Amino acid sequence: MASPITTLFLDIGGVLLTNGWDHHARRRAATNFKLELAEMEDRHHLTFDTYEEGKLTLEEYLGRVVFYQKRPFTRAQFRRFMFAQSQPNPKMIALVRKLKAEYGLRIAVVSNEGRELNEYRIRKFKLDGFVDSFISSCFVHVRKPDADIFRLALEIVQAPARQVVYIENTPMFVQVAEGLGIQSILHTDYKSTCAKLASFGLRNDPGAIRETR
Predict the structure, then answer these.
(1) Cα–Cα distance, 193 to 12 (Å, whole number)
(2) If pLDDT is split at 50, 70 and 90, which confidence band does 2 have?
C-alpha cells in the first residue's frame, strides 16, 4: 500500500508566484531604464548563481550587473522596479492553504532565490502564513539542480521521500527530485496540478475529506 502524503515541497516562482527576476523581467527592466539588454544579460549570468546562493547581497549583485557605471536612475528606483515584477498566483496559494488545512500537511518551499528578493516575496504575499519551512538557496547556500538541496529539505522536514509530493515548473528539477524518490508534479496549470494531486490522494473537491474518511 502506498504511503500517505504528509508533506508538500513547493517552488515559489512559477508555482505560488510569478518568477522573481527572470529574463522577461530583465527585458522589461532594460526597456524601462534604457539599458543594453545583451550586456546586462551577460553580466547577470556570470553572477546570479552566486547571488542566489546567498554569497552576494542584492547591492553587490546590482553593482556588478547594472551600476558598474554611472546611471541616470538610482539603486532604489531599480530595486523598486525589480520587486514590483513579483505577482501572486492566487488560485495556487488558495489550493495549498486548503490542502494544508484539510490534510494536515507540512509545507516546505524549495526554491532558488536571492535573499532580499526572497524575503520581500515571503512578506509581501504572506507565504509564511502557510509555509512551515523555507529551504531557499540563499539561506542554505546550495541551489537546484544540486540534489543536496532536496536532501537537506527532507532532513529539515523529517519526512521520508515517499511521503512527499513536490510541485515544480522546471522539468530538470522535477527529474532531480524524482531521482531521490520524491514524487513530483511538473506544474503547467492549476487544473492539471489539481488532477495530479488527486492521484496522490490529495483531492481539492468539496466533500473529499468526508468521503475518504
Answers:
(1) 15
(2) low
The sign of the CA dihedral 135, 23, 42, 118 is negative
* Nearest Cα residue to 88 out of 179, 6, 16: 16
Residue ranges of the chain that CATH labels 1.10.150.240: 23-84
**Displacement of CA 150 from its chain's centroid (Å):** 13
Tell me: the pLDDT tens digits for 186-198?
999 999 999 999 9
User: Topology of domain 7-18+88-212, per CATH?
Assistant: Rossmann fold (3.40.50)
Residue 192 grid cell: 492539471
Paired residues of 186 in beta bridges: 168
Q: Where are the beta strands (DSSP E) in the chain?
A: 7-10, 106-111, 133-136, 164-168, 183-186
Instruction: Work out the burial of residue 152: count CB atoms within 10 Å of its CB; fewer than 13 is exposed, 13-18 middle, 19 or more buried.
Output: middle
pTM above 0.70, yes or no: yes
CATH architecture of the domain with range 23-84: Orthogonal Bundle (1.10)
115-124 and 58-65 are packed helices; what angle lies between their axes, rounded to 10 degrees?
120
3-state SS, residue 10: strand
The SS3 assignment for 27 reads: helix
Q: What residues are paired with 88 via a beta bridge?
A: 17
